[in-house]
From TrEMBL:
GO terms for molecular function: thioredoxin-disulfide reductase (NADPH) activity. InterPro entries: Thioredoxin-like_fold, Thioredoxin-like_sf. Coiled coil: none annotated. One of its GO terms (biological process) is negative regulation of Wnt signaling pathway. This is Thioredoxin-like fold domain-containing protein. It holds the Pfam family Thioredoxin_8. Residues 203-289 form the Thioredoxin-like fold domain. GO terms for cellular component: nucleus.
Amino acid sequence: MEQYSSRFSAAFDSMKDAVVTSRNKKAKSTIGELFEQHQFVAFYFYRDRSTLCQAFNDHLCRFVASEQEISERLQNSESNSAESTCDKKPVFVVVCIFSTEDKASFQKLAAKLPWFVLERTESRAREKLMRIFRVRRAPCFSLIECVNKSVCAADCCKDVQEDPTGTEFPWRPKNITDVMNGELLCEDGTKKHFDTLPKGMKGVLFAAQWCPPCRTFVSKLKETYKKIKLTHSSFEIVYCSHDRTEQGFKKFSSQMPWLAIPFYDPRSSLLAKMFRVQEIPALLIFNEDWRLINRHGKFEVQADPLGKEFPWYPRSVIELTEKTSFYLREDLSLVLFTEGTSIDLTFAQTFFLPIAEEHFNDQYEPEIVFFYAGDDPVCDRILEVFGLSDLPLPLLCIVDPFSESLYVCDHPNVSGEIIRIFINKFRQDELVAKPFPKPNTSNV
């Protein structure tokens, strides 16, 4: 949760004056005031007409009803990290964040929900929160401790559902090695303890036998795994099952030349929650200290089936190609579109690369992914999809998949100084967002 906490803390001052209201309680406040008045603030990302959100509302109501019980438990717990002055404050407050900007829809939703709501006009705060917590689906329930602005959970929907009385609240993050600790199944059916694994790069695979894309991916991964083992003998993969039956698990895991967490073992779901795995198959890559270095292992395998670039550390600048374009759907991205000439390449190496390295700063999950777009055919298709094909090149833009927005630099001459100004304006909320063209979004 360190990345989430640092980004939230850095952005807090720019969001603290955002207005929130409660129609039921006829109350009006700001995000900053709620943080001063409570021990924890939860942001509930809600989508209209979502049956999942409607079902989660019932779970959340039951959880909120347990606030007094949770408060007493926190006060009596030696593990309570809040200062004594916070003990007298209400434990938590919920702030709903809607995806709609339609006034009528917003007012209808705000009137029927019993919690605070981020006002419709606070679009900047909404977009920033969605980026911080990487919200691409609803419901999402993010919990922050007020005293130090630390993120306890980027999404604790499952905790609310499975722990309705808040026995384990505030569900602070656990160390991955503590979660992984225990027996693992080997390919031959024998068992191996996690503590005995040699130090080295590791992969954690989330998949299921009933999922056709998972079966296809695992078939490819087996070949890549064999290639990687030739040069990285200590590399190992651990399978976290999403199988529905033990029979399916046994059938699928028996085909894998790596380790597996046993079926029904809660570690698989805990790891999926820890790293916000929202789709399968998913392959996360960790360094020898079990620090996440790449959450896009699935795409790396597809782009580098021979594992020549393994361990796939993040790069400060990525060339935009058919194989790397998936990032635009997954991460906040800054793209420099060019004609792909030698002059463009020299400019990218001289000015764009140093700026990217400044922002990269050795982060394994950088806030912004930098792209250089040259003459690969996919670049023209992306420009067309985003409605930018008529604009002159070079062209600088930021692609935000979380709020489904584009930010386009309107300066005709891109330079190192212009790139820095553009990024700073984005950070300071001075750019105008353009929504993704709806009909063609799925083609990106």
